[in-house]
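Late entry, evening session. Most of the bench is empty. Finally got around to the prediction I had been postponing all week. Sequence below, unchanged from the version circulated by S.P.
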Amino acid sequence: MALSISQQFFVSSVFALFSGILFLAMARRQPRTRLFTYWGIGFLLLAAADAAYGSRHLAPDFVSIVLAHAFLQTALVSLHTGVRRLRDGQAGRIDITGYLVIALTFGVALWFTYIDPNFEARLILVASTTAFLVGRTAWLLSGHSRRMGGSVPANVLAGLWWLVVSILIITVLATLTYGEQAKDLWQAGPQVTTLLDVRPVLIVLIVCFAIWMELQAMRAESREHAHRNHEAIEAGRAAYAEQCAREIAAAGTSPLWVALIDLDNHRTVRRQHGHAAADALLAWTENTIRGALQNNEGLERHGTDHFILIAPRASLTEARLIAHEIHKRIETGTCIVGRTPIQATVSIGMARLQAGRATPAALAAAAHVALYKARSAGRNRTEIADDATP
């Protein structure tokens, strides 16, 4: 049995509602994703628009027509904002054009609903402005697909949005051609494939390919970040080994300390805010540590979330003072990533040059054992390796 127009809108509303909930749930699990939050909001607004359209025989015209148009186009602006966030540097900009289009459509829809009721003019207005809003998103998705090297999900997703644009253009042309025969919203002209008929299917396809595209991008970003991270760590370890060997040779009977400094919440920041935020926190931590050092200490990257410090000619008291100063500066400082303040703490393990611990690798291993003790004891503290006495 064929569904009525109102029933089709309600079916589409249910699909959009569940899609919005799915996107928001994924955004909660992966807050660093740049697409899911805005698309979740957009699909919830789309569900509200379809519900209002479907109730047009039950609700006042202001709710079922004018507000429905506003919900629809606000949903499209939210979806467009989500795609803009896929491009670096676009996150903080307000979509002025989109909101101007919404205001224009809202005002003119009021006019054609109450002052000069004209179904054809209202339909042409809404379909044209909606085609413009959808076309902007389709254009950005096409560009994003090219930046991703023509990935399959990005290509298909862009194609689906261009399909929506073409259907809306057909709607405008059919309304101009057939006039009153286009009485049913988005049911314009005889035997014309309409947006309403295929809307639930489009929603499912767009959701599936958007999730696929974003997960693919996240995997590619993770691989690229892992490669850069590996190179930085290897370079840091090589620099440490070279400098530590020189300091050991020059130490004689002078004390020499090596400290491993672990950033306690690095993994949490990476999960919640992404690789870029975690890298920014690492850079801020390195700069903060360097600000606590004297001229003769050396600091290098030694792992995913920790640094290694060489403190030549330092007594146990001086080594503890260095660690204390590092803790104080990290705890009292704040790393600002975008507009998000991030607090950090570090755990430190320290080892002193002595018999049986006279190579860079042996000193680093002893410091790592002390670092493990600091972590096990609750983090944000310093532990000294056994037998590291003056």
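Two things to note before I forget:
The mean pLDDT is 82.
The chain has eleven helices and seven strands.
Will write this up properly tomorrow.
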